[in-house]
Amino acid sequence: MYDGSPSTISRGNVSISVIRMRRSRPSSLVGIPISLAKGLKDAAEEGEVVVSSTVRDLVAGSGLRFSERATLQLEGVQGEWRLYALDA
């Protein structure tokens, strides 16, 4: 949780994806992972870490606990992405 100190992250998100770079502008990233990362960031409130269902599934058995936080629809992708908040 956010404790007010400058060295503490006030919001966070975690996602695992493959990204593409535009050949014409290598510093410009595009694709579903970029949209997902923005959705995760926007869903996180201060002091909260939000992860995608992929990350939650990958850490199964780790002892980390999550609560369902939101669903996200990405343009050009069918269905919804489930987002989870890391429980403190």
Give the CATH level 1 class: Alpha Beta
What structural class do helix, strand and pairing data support? Answer: alpha+beta
Strand percentage, roughly?
A: 25-35%
Quickly give the CATH architecture.
2-Layer Sandwich
Q: Secondary-structure element order, as H and E?
A: EEEHEHEE
Count the domains: 1
Remind me, CATH topology?
Alpha-Beta Plaits
Distance between the termini: 7 Å
Q: Low-confidence stretches at least 5 residues in length (pLDDT < 50)?
A: none
Number of strands: 6
Adjacency order of strands in the biggest sheet: 1-4-6-5
Shape: elongated
Instruction: Give the overall average pLDDT.
Output: 77
Rg over CA atoms: 14 Å
- What profile does the largest beta sheet have? 4 strands, mixed
List the total number of helices.
2
Fraction of residues in H or I helices = 10-25%
Report on the structure:
There is one protein chain. The chain is α+β, with helices and mostly antiparallel strands and 88 residues long. It has a single domain, classed as Nucleotide cyclase, GGDEF domain (Alpha-Beta Plaits, 2-Layer Sandwich). It is built from 2 helices and 6 strands; from the N terminus they run E-E-E-H-E-H-E-E. The protein has helices at 32-43, 53-58, and strands spanning 11-14, 20-21, 29-30, 48-52, 66-72, 81-86. The strands form 2 sheets. It has a 4-stranded mixed beta sheet with strand order 1-4-6-5. It has a two-stranded antiparallel sheet with strand order 2-3. Strand 2 (20-21) and strand 3 form a beta hairpin. The longest helix has 12 residues, at 32-43. It is elongated, with a radius of gyration of 14 Å. The chain starts with 10 loop residues before the first strand and ends with a strand. The model has no long low-confidence stretch (mean pLDDT 77).
